[in-house]
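so i finally got all the pieces together for this one. its four components total, 476 residues if u count the protein bits. some of the lines might not be protein, just check the labels. i wanna see the whole assembly predicted at once instead of chain by chain like last time, that was a mess tbh
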Amino acid sequence: MKVVYFAWVRERIGKPEEEVSPPESVRTVADLAGWLAQQGEEYAYAFENPAVVRAAINRKHVKPDTPIAGAAEIAFFPPMTGG
Amino acid sequence: MKVVYFAWVRERIGKPEEEVSPPESVRTVADLAGWLAQQGEEYAYAFENPAVVRAAINRKHVKPDTPIAGAAEIAFFPPMTGG
Amino acid sequence: MSNVPVSVRIQAEPFDTAAEVARLAEGRTDVGAVVTFTGLCRAEGGRLAALELEHYPGMAEEEIGRVAQEAAARWPLQGVVAIHRHGRVAPGEPIVLVVTASAHRAAAFEAAEFLMDYLKTRAPFWKKEHHVDGTAGDWVEAKDADDKAMERWGR
Amino acid sequence: MSNVPVSVRIQAEPFDTAAEVARLAEGRTDVGAVVTFTGLCRAEGGRLAALELEHYPGMAEEEIGRVAQEAAARWPLQGVVAIHRHGRVAPGEPIVLVVTASAHRAAAFEAAEFLMDYLKTRAPFWKKEHHVDGTAGDWVEAKDADDKAMERWGR
């Protein structure tokens, strides 16, 4: 499963994207964020306040309880500041 | 006292402006409109529905009960349709 | 009177929107939002050859100037442009332009809407239709919807 | 999907507002109102050397396209343009452009405000400050006011 990061989530983790293989118990976006937070200091820092981090699956905004089954690309990023 | 007319008020009266000398009993904008309406068929036509005709004194919008004493220029016109 | 640059013009000629925006924003680094509104003459389904815009010279400038100053007092604006054409205007041509500049978008949007609502109902302009068959049409009637739009600003 | 012409672009280059307006209105005689919103980079009192705009390629286009179509379904529009720049933008330079065309002004104004409220809160862009002293500053924080502005559209 491809995971992509943007803005300070990307900077904290130190890479723009990666392939991850979470265990089957990781079913939702929130589960995935929680699992990633345990993969090292840089991940713990990026997800230290999980309520702030937003997510998209296959380039569409999703909520934390959205299942990740079948997702080709999951993105994590801070609240958007475009416009 | 100079009176100016615009749009269909002007067309109905048949002239864009004129000098008028109403009697002293004509004190307000509404009085003046009523007096003008008696000055001939074309005036009666222009003021046939006096509630529709708007007025300005010295280039500022005024209400029918505004006194006309000291006015240099009084304008009568239909509701505005600019923009 | 505010210190906001306010430019009001009544003219027969078309206007250059890009030049008017540049007048407000060029060379500045404190403007965050520019809103423009352009009102154009519609053909009304092919019926219309032109609109003829009559105005009250002098009062038109003064009245629009007054309301532009009011907008500048009411919202934190950095500049206002209001241009209204008079004379004959063909379908597809612009009639009116409002430009507002502000640090923030809400002020720029609201001030532009306020100015347009004002222009529709209080600026001394009157539109007469000219038909494609060469006949003069009616004077355009004022719309209740425009009066209602104006009322929301509490004036 | 509506039949309204919708043009969405994500680009590093500046844009030409006049050309985008012409794209919507030129050669037409049924457009009565064109609203443009331009968002510009502010120097923040001279502190800022530039903003760096990061975006999510692919999603940015798709997401803005979705909301432009929603605007076209919600208001009687005749055309929509939305352009958002990415990369480094200096103070005074434009960042975002929204253009809406409609027969009537209320639709053009409301749709433009809706699109901007959307872009501020849902389009996948992030701004990072770069200071005049050469240091990288902070990522710009999202504003509660922007979320509130979005909520008024009932989404």
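The mean pLDDT of chain A is 97.
Helices of chain A lie at 7-13, 29-37, 41-46.
anyway lmk what u think
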